[in-house]
Predict the structure.
Amino acid sequence: MLNLVIIGYGGMGRHHAKDLISQTRHVQCVGAYDTDPDNLEKAGLDGFIMYQTFETVLDDDGVDAILIATPNDYHEYIAIQALQAGKHVICEKPVTLTAASLERIMVVAKAMERTFMVHQNRRWDDDYLIIRNIYENQEIGDVFHIESRIHGGNGIPGDWRCEAVHGGGMVYDWGVHVFDQLLMMIKSPVISVSSDLSFVLGHDSDDGFVTQLIFENGIRAHIEVATTNFITLPRWYVKGLTGTAVIHDWNRNGEMVLLRANVDHVPPKPIRAGAGFTKTMAPLREASLERKPLPEPLVLDTTFYDNFAAVVAGTAMPYVANDEVMRVMVLLETVFEAFETQQTIHTHI
């Protein structure tokens, strides 16, 4: 059993303690440290040791690992200090604000022979694992276009998440998830990146973004994250050569619509559309279509924390590997570059 202390016992830190770590067999939360006295008091009320300084955590030989759940700009310093003190480290996403910062952490982790893993928890999302099932098993034929959207209308929640100095904004907050999902699913380099960021709410960090990716294998992806939508578009919209799949929301509402096999397809007849006629956009006959429920999500054989414990024990490889996280960080930097230069960046990520 690994003894873990949470650094930063705010909303995310408490979520780990009460909802994630408590469900695993090989890791237990024993304490927390937070610079906010109110958060530290919550840790005590939840039954955990209240560490008064970060140094006391590092000096405690009974602590095997720490979880970093602080504002993003503190991640590198805390991670390196903990690794040098001989602790294993889990870090909330985004791991850091730059790829170079992650590289410095990886160098220390290797030198100290300690495990460093990033909590890319959205790899376990059912909606994503359904899309992976559709993609990998060609449920709608060869996929050539993917739209991934996260829409909300509440603005940027919290305080520091609005501030660029702390790594706020939606590229870091949600972009790190949706890009990670696509890079894990599509085993092909990204060769083109264009992006636009939104600042309509007046913060110095982005309140949303739209990014277009082209992969070397020809797949195009449209990624959209926004906090100003009062009507939301589907979470996923995926086109294949023989069908289309849609997932509307987190509750997995959606379907697949496919062309029926072995059916004579009648050419479309012109229809009235607005002030004119169209044959191109006439709907397909229902007799030519097959509507199917979404497949079940792919089943993963481990949870994050069980995998972390197995990696520390030397019996498993990390399910979230640092070189995969590095690839995401390079892509995030390219997204910012594409916006700042207002150019399409041709790359090989």
Q: What stands out?
A: The CA atoms of residues 136 and 185 lie 8 Å apart. The two ends are 38 Å apart (CA to CA). The first strand starts at residue 2 and ends at 7.
